[in-house]
Amino acid sequence: MKMTGAQILVETLIEQGVDTVFGFPGGMVVDIYDKLYDKQDKINHILTAHEEGAVHSADGYARATGKTGVVIATSGPGATNLVTGIATAYLDSIPLVAITGNVRNSMIGRDSFQEIDITGITLPITKHNFFVHKVSKLADVVRTAFELAQSGRPGPVLIDIPKDVQEAVFEFKKQPVKKPDPIPCCDDEDIQKAVKLIKEAKRPYIYFGGGAVRTSIGEDIVKLADKLDAVIGCSMMGLSEIPSDSPRFLGMQGMHGRYASSVALAKADLIIALGVRFSDRATGKTEKFSLSATKIHVDCDRAEIGKNVPVDLGICCDIKDFVDRLIKAAPQRKNTEWIKKVEQLKQREADAYEGLPFLPRDAINIISDNIKPDTRLVTDVGQHQCWTAQFFKFRNKRTWITSGGLGTMGFGLGAAIGSSIGTNTRSVLITGDGSFGMCLNELATAVTYNIPVTIVIFNNHALGMVRQWQKVFFDGRYSNTTLDRKTDFVKLAQAFGAKGFKATDKKSFEEAFKKAYKVKGPSIIDLTIKTDSLVLPMLKPGGTFNNLILRREDISDAEK
Fold it and tell me: pLDDT at residue 276 above 70?
């Protein structure tokens, strides 16, 4: 059947199983929006307040569901407003298809109104991008984009479609959806090499990340740890894959990770790294990272093997296949002294927290104890993100939605909206007054669609994480991190059409949260916390886990 390019795009999206897209219309995508109007029964379009909110929503949708998120924006500023969100998805390996319009082919390169070279701009932050010159190529480009976004190590793909291609007519024929090529399995020889290294080890540590979440191998990791008598830690992107109360699980390690997890990683003599990239935030100074440990690194992306940290055995394969086969091949081990040492680290960590008045942790515990297990826990970026990563009691998979690699302030509200829409469940957003201020306009979107999102603002009237660095490393010279704003978040919520609550201590927060969580649509809790609350432990940038700061009183000693 002959169709316009805009019709072909919409029909191909439907063919690929897309039922929800996020976006904002404009002149160079008006044809696409006209055809979306005809297919409202097939594709639900969420109109956000800003293109950045749209791309974060599509990202949150993808993280919560495992599907590919889709976002649409017009040319020029519409397209450039997607850039931060595309980079966020790229750094965290999130499958995303971004569709932008552009000026006519004949106007390209003339500095036309709202013309921008978005394929050139996004080249370093996409798995691939396409400029569609001819309508005859459009359907196949869209199919390839979805295949690429999901294949191997997932990521964002951008399709830029000039207006004349949207208007042009071509034959369209529906095709079966092509599944991504499977990731190669592990070689027997590599399994045997891994077994040999395991037999020589006495202090094994399994370290997993976002790749484990994508392949959903949490239960297999626990089985492997039981077989090896190993402990388990994860990067920020691995959280929620294993329940927080799993006995061998020490939590997130790294710059602001759990003390026991970070120190155990530093003292291990064997690290089995699954679906991680050894981010500098997770390792500290990479040149000195766990020098005494033998490292096995398994990832589906060959380029990641040994990129940041030298490894003794690098294996590019399906990590689920590797773990399944290693469970069968590895000997049953007993590492009594190692487990005893780790228990001592856990006790030291617990002693450091004991008795401290620490409202952020109390609030996170209250949230943990008062939400349904399938609720998506979303954060922005800052101190609140690290406190949540440390203390929230995760129970179900894919319930942790955050920007790990790029660390995007303003990510949270859009992502919370997308994850709620994708899963038809409530989201709880933990944010800071700095992060929330960046994209709070999406509260209008949440109200418009009556999205069930409970927003908790940890309000310390400061850019807390940067302020913490200034306190510890810059002699308390608080340059431009004090937010002397007069925003009344309760009234702001009411102005947008949401419910607002105020809390100043543990008791008032528990009461407010229970009420806010029951609100059918969006609600905000403005929780006042101390300006100088710190995220501890803390690792100095470029430092090692040997000088990890565990207590506030350790700060001056660490700098001597």
Answer: yes
Nearest one of 57, 544, 77 to 292, comparing CA atoms = 544
How many other CB atoms are found less than 10 A from the CB of residue 545?
A: 25
Helix axes 51-65, 412-423, angle to 10 degrees: 50
For residues 89 and 405, give the distance between their C-alpha atoms in angstroms, rounded to a whole number. 9
H helical segments located in 332-429: 336-353, 359-369, 383-391, 412-423
Candidate list 35, 163, 320, 499, residue with the active-site label: 163
Contacts of 375 (CB under 8 A, 6+ apart): 399, 425, 426, 427, 428
Q: What type of residue sits at position 122?
A: T
Q: Which of 39, 107, 114, 193 is catalytic?
A: 114
- Is the four-CA dihedral 312, 315, 320, 323 of positive or negative sign? negative
Q: Which of 42, 113, 343, 511 is catalytic?
A: 113
In the 3-class helix/strand/coil scheme, how is 79-95 assigned residue by residue? HHCCHHHHHHHHHCCCC
Q: 525: closest CA among 510, 537, 536? A: 510
Residue 185's nearest CA partner among 295, 300, 272, 297 is 300
For residue 192, the number of C-alpha atoms closer than 13 Å in the C-beta half-sphere is: 3
Q: Degrees (nearest 5) of the Cα angle 232, 394, 151?
A: 75
3 state SS of 286: helix
3 is catalytic: no
Catalytic residue flag (residue 219): no
- Percent of the chain as helix, strand, coil, to the nearest 5: 45, 20, 40
- Quick check: is 51 catalytic? yes
Residue 559 has pLDDT above 60, yes or no: no
Q: State yes or no: pLDDT of 325 exceeds 80.
A: yes
Tokens of 483: 């937010």
**Residue 192 CB neighbours (<10 A):** 10
Is 192 considered catalytic here?
Answer: no
pLDDT at site 355: 66
Query: Catalytic annotation on 146?
Result: no
Question: Does the pLDDT of residue 31 top 60, yes or no?
Answer: yes
For residue 45, give the amino acid letter. Answer: H
3-state secondary structure (DSSP) of residue 378: strand
Name the pTM for this structure.
Answer: 0.95
Question: Does 430 have pLDDT greater than 60?
Answer: yes
Q: Which of 28, 409, 465, 538 is catalytic?
A: 465
Q: Where are the beta strands (DSSP E) in 103-192?
A: 128-131, 156-162, 169-171
